[in-house]
Specification:
Layout lengths: L8 E3 L2 E3 L6 E5 L6 E6 L3 H18 L4 H17 L1 H12 L3 H21 L6 E3 L6 E9 L2 E5 L7 H13 L2 E5 L6 H12 L7 E3 L5 H10 L3 E7 L2 H12 L4 E5 L4 E5 L5 H13 L9 E7 L3 H13 L19 H16 L3 E4 L14 E4 L16 E7 L2 H9 L6 E5 L3 H10 L4 E4 L18 E2 L12 E9 L1
Parallel strand pairs: 7-8, 7-10, 8-9, 10-11, 12-13, 12-17, 13-16, 15-16, 17-18
Antiparallel strand pairs: 1-2, 3-4, 5-6, 6-20, 11-19, 14-15
Organism: Vibrio nereis
GO molecular function, one term: succinate-semialdehyde dehydrogenase (NAD+) activity
InterPro entries: Ald_DH/histidinol_DH, Ald_DH_C, Ald_DH_CS_CYS, Ald_DH_CS_GLU, Ald_DH_N, Aldehyde_DH_dom, Aldehyde_DH_Superfamily, Succ_semiAld_DH
């Protein structure tokens, strides 16, 4: 792992410090130990990175799709070869259990493989002419310099999901990783360098001042596309910043995912699906189950079995084999979760399990189950980002759909039923970009990922994921 622990940013093929020499510590959330320090870059470095990406774009855009695909495939191979080291690094700086971290590395690598293949399938069209003296053709070309602003909760996959299609399309990239988790981004950039990706095509700027760097990356006139994964308030700010130069923008923002268990559901499957959806990454995912709506006829049965399973989840350092719940990313995250739980209990929720900071450590929160939640409680309208389940009762299908949709967010939703007619009816009625049907894990490189309403715009992964990195050019040819 040590070979992939890097302490400098990457700009124009050079591993550099901040211009003013400032650094920021990267700590292990499980124990507070400093792993290393990285450059605390600012506006000047961000502008330099954009210029480097723009210069590199002039040659990179002219390369063949087959050439770009070959380099992406080499990068994929290196990620797989170094999967163990990357997973240990991921766990060390982010906290999720090693098994989950390894899964994320392989999931992240899959985007490089997928878009290496998609690079060769960026087709244009010949359009039937309306005039015998003209011919109409469309071609697709790379949009230009892309900035990828990524979060801390999936520090590998959120980068490859953006950089993979950008490079496949012929774009160059400036990556601003999450402030808490820059090391995975640097490690992957090192592997990209080893794969032969030319200097300036990928640049990585690290910082403790995201607003300062973000302002450059979202406003600079040479940047033509911004891809951001993070909170809805920041996404709205980015959209405003990008508007002055009319950039393409892809946003994958917050969620408030409902998980509906109908009276005819397979309860054991529903329990297992809810546990993996809710407690993966200690509840710190944008598609995490946030509100569990359980039909009154099976509510008690579900709660009993769900509590049994959640109670068995092992909490602790993710590098220790067998642990399933790691730490929250920082103290601010712990305080938020603890405050929401305390407020819910004040407002009448019942605590079935957990509800406190764990004795394992200050940044570990107990797997928690709160029952008899109502929409009047503050916790019902917040993205929890912690290992806390909130359970609601319902009796009517139309009513639960209305309640599930009663949120400004629309990223992911889940429901369990054995009725085929209900599958189509509910799937079409839920106002979400992703719907899991009798399934708690929905992410894959081959399917589109993204939300509606205030959960964002654009799609990542799948054949659709390369579209936002391309411009369609119409050629009208007189003959």
């Amino acid at each position: 792992m040590r070979d992939l622990v890097l302490s400098r940013g990457l700009i124009n093929g050079e591993w550099v410090e901040a211009k003013d020499g400032k650094q920021v510590d990267v700590t292990n959330p499980a124990n507070g130990d400093v792993i290393t320090s990285v450059p605390d870059m600012g506006k000047e470095e961000a502008e330099t990175a954009v210029l480097a990406a723009h210069d590199a774009f002039q040659d990179w855009r002219k390369t063949t799709a087959k050439y770009r695909a070959g380099l992406l495939k080499k990068w994929f191979d290196l990620m797989v070869e170094n999967a163990d080291a990357l997973a240990k690094l991921l766990t060390t700086e982010q906290g999720k259990p090693y098994k989950e971290a390894y899964g994320e590395v392989m999931y992240g690598a899959s985007f490089l493989e997928w878009f290496a293949e998609e690079a060769k399938r960026v087709y244009g069209d010949v359009i039937p002419s309306a005039n015998p003296s003209t011919r109409y053709v469309t071609i697709k070309q790379p949009v230009g310099v892309v900035t990828a602003i990524t979060p801390w909760n999936f520090p590998v996959a959120m980068i490859t999901r953006k950089v993979g299609p950008a490079l496949a399309a012929g774009c160059t990239v400036v990556v601003k990783p999450g402030e808490d988790t820059p090391l995975c981004a640097l490690a992957m950039a090192k592997l990209a360098e080893q794969a032969g990706i030319p200097k300036g095509v990928i640049n990585v700027v690290t910082t403790s001042r995201p607003a300062e760097i973000g302002d450059v990356l979202c406003r600079h006139p040479l940047v033509r596309k911004v891809s951001f994964t993070g909170s809805t308030p920041v996404g709205k700010l980015i959209l405003r910043q990008a508007a002055d130069t009319v950039k393409k923008v892809s946003l994958e923002l917050g969620g408030n995912a409902p998980f509906i268990v109908f009276e005819d559901a397979d309860i054991e499957k529903a329990v297992q699906g809810a546990v993996i959806s809710k407690y993966r990454n200690a509840g710190q995912t944008c598609v995490c189950t946030n509100r569990l709506y359980i039909h009154d006829a099976v509510y008690d049965q579900f709660v009993e079995r769900y509590t049994q399973v959640v109670k068995e989840l092992a909490i602790g350092d993710g590098l220790v084999e067998g642990n399933e719940i790691g730490p929250l990313i920082n103290q601010k995250a712990v305080d938020k979760v603890d405050s929401l739980v305390a407020k819910a209990l004040e407002q009448g929720a019942n605590k079935t399990l957990g509800g406190n900071v764990s004795e394992v450590g200050d940044q570990f929160y107990q797997p928690t189950i709160l029952t008899d939640i109502t929409e009047e409680m503050e916790i019902a309208h917040q993205e929890l980002f912690g290992p806390v389940s909130t359970l609601f009762r319902f009796t009517d299908e139309d009513d639960v759909i209305r309640r599930a949709n009663d949120t400004p967010f629309g990223l992911a939703a889940y429901f369990y039923t054995e009725s085929h007619s209900r599958v189509w009816r509910v799937s079409e009625a839920l106002e979400y970009g992703i719907v899991g049907i009798n399934e708690g894990i929905i992410s894959t490189e081959v399917a589109p990922f993204g939300g509606v309403k205030e959960s964002g715009c654009g799609r990542e992964g799948s054949k659709y994921g390369i579209d936002d990195y391309l411009e369609i050019k119409y050629l009208c040819h007189g003959v």
